[in-house]
Write a structure and sequence with these properties.
Helix content: 25-40%
Distance between the termini: 116 Å
Strand content: 25-35%
Keywords: Membrane, Transmembrane, Transmembrane helix
Radius of gyration: 40 Å
Transmembrane segments: 15-36
Region (Disordered): 217-249
CATH class of the largest domain: Mainly Beta
C-alpha cells in the first residue's frame, strides 16, 4: 500500500513538473513573438515617416565632367583657384620655310597670376584657306630661358619635327597658315601641377617660303623683305585673332 502511494506520488510530481515546463516554454515563446512583432511595427512606422530614397541613375548617363566634378581631386581644386585657363598668351608670331624646313617663332606673355616654369604649345598647319589641319605637332615644350614671371614675355623658337610639314602638298599649296595654341603651363611654385590652357590661339603668317635651290624661283617674299621682317618682329607681325579652336584630326 505504501509502495503504491509512493509510486503514484512520484508520477504525479513528474507530470506536474513537465506541465510547468511546457507552460513556461509557451509563455517565453509568446513573449518573444510579441517583442519581435512590436519591433517590426515600430520599424514600419519609422519607415513610413522617412521619404524613400530615389534610385541612383546609371553612371553611364552622366558626362565625364559631371562624374569627375562630383569629388574634385586636390590638383583640380588648386587649378581652379590659381589658373584662369588663359595664363600664357601668344602675343604675336610668324613662321617660315627655309630650305624646305619649317621655322616657327612666337612671343608669349604671362598674363596670369603666378610664375610659369614650363609651357607646352600645339601648332596646326592649314593649307589654302581650309579650316582643317593638314598637319599638327602637339604639346611641344616652349623653350624658356628661365621662370617667366607675371607680366613678362619671351620670344621662343618652336621646333617642328614632323615630316608631314615638309610634304609636297605643303610646298604646292597657294596659302599656308599656322595656328599656335598654348595647351599647358606649369606653376613654378607647384612643380608637379600642369594647368590646361583653353585660349583659342593665334594664327601666324608666313614670312618666308624657301624650299631649296631647286625651287628658288617660287620663294616668297623676297630675301630682303624676309630679313627685315624677321629682324623687326614688330608687334603686328603675324597676329590674327582666332574665332574658335580648330577641331583635332
Amino acid at each position: 500500500m505504501n509502495d503504491y502511494d509512493e509510486d503514484g506520488g512520484s508520477e504525479f510530481k513528474s507530470v506536474l513538473l513537465w506541465t510547468v515546463f511546457f507552460l513556461l516554454l509557451g509563455a517565453a515563446g509568446y513573449g518573444g513573438w510579441y517583442v519581435v512583432s512590436g519591433l517590426g511595427q515600430s520599424a514600419e512606422n519609422i519607415q513610413s515617416q522617412v521619404e524613400q530614397a530615389k534610385p541612383r541613375s546609371d553612371v553611364n548617363t552622366f558626362t565625364l565632367s559631371q562624374v569627375s566634378g562630383a569629388v574634385p581631386a586636390e590638383w583640380q581644386q588648386v587649378s581652379e583657384s590659381v589658373s584662369s585657363g588663359t595664363d600664357l598668351a601668344v602675343q604675336k608670331g610668324e613662321f617660315a620655310y627655309r630650305d624646305g624646313m619649317p621655322v616657327v617663332r612666337v612671343a608669349v606673355y604671362n598674363q596670369g597670376g603666378f610664375a610659369i616654369s614650363a609651357a607646352q604649345i600645339s601648332l596646326s598647319l592649314l593649307l589654302d584657306g581650309s579650316n582643317e589641319a593638314f598637319a599638327q605637332v602637339q604639346a611641344v615644350p616652349v623653350p624658356l630661358s628661365g621662370v617667366l614671371l607675371p607680366g613678362d614675355s619671351v620670344i621662343a623658337d618652336i621646333p617642328v619635327d614632323d615630316p608631314a610639314w615638309r610634304d609636297e602638298a605643303v610646298r604646292l599649296a597657294g596659302q599656308r597658315r599656322v595656328l599656335a595654341q598654348v595647351v599647358f603651363v606649369n606653376d613654378a611654385d607647384r612643380d608637379n601641377i600642369d594647368y590646361p590652357q583653353t585660349d583659342a590661339g593665334v594664327y601666324l603668317k608666313q614670312v618666308e617660303n624657301d624650299w631649296g635651290a631647286q625651287y628658288a624661283e617660287e620663294s616668297l617674299p623676297s630675301e630682303s623683305e624676309t630679313e627685315a621682317s624677321v629682324a623687326e618682329f614688330d608687334e603686328t607681325a603675324g597676329v590674327e585673332d582666332v574665332p574658335a579652336v580648330l577641331p583635332q584630326q
